[in-house]
């Protein structure tokens, strides 16, 4: 049996012997992938879909953490945390929620069983198996929806007032007491919502975040012991969906600034921001060039991309395909906030500019947000190896399929992580290529350089970081006498 365990928002530098002793011990017995990458934008639901499809957003279509779907709501975006809104979007499109084959479907087609639990938002959990090929338990809902027996036996579902500790405990109980013994799955996904929540509200390395990690570690110890008692050929992957940055607060809500500049209407939703996506409606679409020029002057801007079909209107901009986005659901513009290597109050590096009032977040193109955790141990996995071979969340599905004796579909962006598997190549012998894609963005005082740094292994590409040089400042004018 394979367990894919996600600790939401876990940065690799937060895995320490003092706070996560069990995970630290398991990491020592398995393989630590120090150069793992998540999908961009560095947010939860995008990466939930990447985990389940082995694809980047361009192929799976969950291109942001929120999506603007005028057929459902012309005024504001839908949250991908809301599974009903996600499914309503797919229904309105007359198609699939996730545009690529999912792990659940591939396993079902091979006569294998997958089960899923998640203590994060119902949308995140739903995206781990959106065609419900096996039972799924979230703290608030179970799928199939007409099967409420599991929740009823466990005293669930939980109320909206429940905290993340209770939600984690509930879904782990559902897994260990119901789903594993009854379904004897070949693969289980376990998505736990911490340390994301504690880090958002209390900060990276805060006492609250460290307490959440200690609690997760104890839960992991119990989960692994229970799963190992049911199957002595257990393989575990412990990963996260993205890293994290501490917020450097800036008073810079993009749509508000566009309104003040007269480039967005205060009366109508002609410019709609959905996380990193900026959707332009009606007359705002005619102002694309002016909106781009305005954004390029903003000191908080960290990156900007245009949708491929609009490239002739801003030919200097990189297309969204450059960060493996660009789908029918994509906004006209995709942006991220600037970041730096500076540290927070307890010495954890990585700051990103944000108008949000919370303490820390993700979504940027910083290496601190793009570098996710990936640790594997157990059956089929090498022991005591640290790998610096670039890899990522898109590689987990193909690697899991390979371990189960299945051929991953060619359409998957990810690769089988041979260097992690017993009998596979030594990490030092794996050929790694690096590249940089650069573009010069004009602004009034000169130009800004946007660079995307990539790593490549075999046919799989990973984004290491994205930078945009600051806008040039006007020389100080001297009044000559
Ligand atoms: Zn997350």
In short:
The mean pLDDT is 96.
Question: Can you put this structure into words, describing what you see?
Answer:
This protein folds into two domains: 2-244 and 363-429, Alkaline Phosphatase, subunit A, CATH 3.40.720; 248-341 and 434-479, no CATH class. 28% of the residues lie in helices and 24% in strands. It is built from 15 helices and 25 strands. It has helices at residues 21-29, 44-53, 57-60, 83-93, 103-109, 122-126, 149-154, 164-183, 196-202, 207-230, 254-260, 283-286, 288-295, 367-370, 396-403, and strands at 2-7, 31-33, 36-37, 66-67, 78-79, 114-118, 136-138, 142-143, 187-192, 235-239, 245-249, 271-274, 277-280, 301-306, 318-319, 333-337, 339-343, 349-354, 360-361, 374-378, 385-387, 391-392, 433-443, 446-457, 460-468. Helix 8 packs parallel to helix 10 and helix 9 packs antiparallel against helix 10 (207-230). The termini are far apart. Bound molecules: zinc ion.
Within the CATH hierarchy, at the fold level, what is the topology of the largest domain?
Alkaline Phosphatase, subunit A
Spans of 5+ residues with little confidence (pLDDT < 50)?
none
Rg result: 22 Å
Shape: globular
The average pLDDT is 96
Q: CATH homologous superfamily of the largest domain, by name?
A: Alkaline Phosphatase, subunit A
Residues in β-strands, percent: 15-25%
Total number of distinct structural domains: 2
Instruction: Identify every distinct bound molecule in the structure, by name, code or SMILES.
Output: zinc ion
The CATH architecture of the largest domain can be given as 3-Layer(aba) Sandwich
Strand count:
25
Distance between the termini: 81 Å
Sketch the major β-sheet.
9 strands, mixed
Portion in helices: 25-40%
């Amino acid at each position: 049996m394979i367990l894919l365990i996600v600790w939401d928002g876990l940065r690799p530098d937060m895995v320490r012997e003092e706070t996560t002793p069990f995970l630290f011990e398991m990491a020592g017995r398995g393989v630590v992938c120090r150069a793992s990458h998540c999908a961009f934008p560095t947010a939860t639901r995008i990466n939930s879909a990447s985990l389940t499809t082995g694809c980047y957003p361009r192929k799976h279509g969950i291109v942001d953490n929120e999506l603007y779907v005028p057929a459902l709501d012309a005024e504001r975006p839908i949250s991908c945390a809301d599974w009903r809104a996600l499914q309503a979007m797919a229904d309105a499109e007359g198609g699939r929620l996730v545009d690529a084959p999912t792990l659940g479907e591939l396993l079902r087609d091979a006569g294998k069983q997958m089960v899923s639990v998640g203590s994060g938002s119902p949308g995140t959990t739903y995206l781990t198996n959106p065609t419900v090929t096996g039972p799924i338990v979230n703290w608030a809902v179970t799928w199939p929806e007409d099967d409420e027996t599991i929740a009823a036996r466990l005293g669930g579902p939980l109320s909206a007032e429940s905290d993340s500790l209770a939600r984690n405990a509930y879904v782990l109980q559902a897994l260990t007491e119901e789903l594993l013994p009854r379904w004897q799955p070949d693969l289980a996904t376990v998505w736990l919502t911490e340390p994301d929540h504690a880090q958002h509200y209390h900060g990276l390395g805060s006492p609250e975040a460290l307490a959440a990690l200690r609690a997760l570690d104890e839960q992991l110890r119990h989960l692994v012991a229970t799963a190992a008692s049911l199957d002595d050929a257990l393989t575990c992957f412990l990963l996260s969906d993205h890293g994290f940055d501490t917020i450097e607060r800036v008073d810079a809500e993009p749509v508000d600034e566009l309104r003040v500049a007269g480039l967005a209407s205060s009366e109508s939703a002609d410019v709609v921001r959905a996380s990193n996506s900026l959707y332009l409606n009606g007359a705002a679409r005619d102002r694309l060039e002016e909106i781009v020029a305005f954004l390029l002057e903003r000191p908080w801007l960290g990156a900007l991309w245009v949708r491929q079909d609009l490239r002739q209107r801003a030919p200097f901009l990189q297309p969204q395909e450059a960060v493996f986005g660009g789908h029918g659901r994509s906004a006209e513009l995709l942006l991220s906030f600037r970041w730096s290597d500076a540290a927070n109050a307890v010495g954890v590096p990585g700051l990103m500019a944000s108008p949000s009032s919370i303490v820390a977040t993700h979504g940027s193109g910083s290496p601190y947000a793009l570098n996710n955790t990936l640790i594997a141990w157990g059956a089929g996995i090498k022991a005591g190896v640290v790998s610096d071979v670039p890899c990522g969340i898109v590689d987990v599905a193909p690697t899991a399929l390979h371990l189960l004796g299945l051929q991953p579909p060619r359409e998957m962006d990810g690769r089988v992580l041979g260097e992690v598997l017993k009998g596979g190549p030594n990490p030092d012998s794996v050929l790694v290529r690096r590249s940089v894609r650069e573009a010069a963005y004009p602004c009034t005082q000169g130009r800004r350089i946007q660079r995307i740094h990539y790593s490549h292994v075999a046919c799989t590409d990973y984004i290491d970081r994205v930078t945009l040089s600051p806008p040039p400042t006007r020389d100080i004018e001297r009044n000559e006498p």
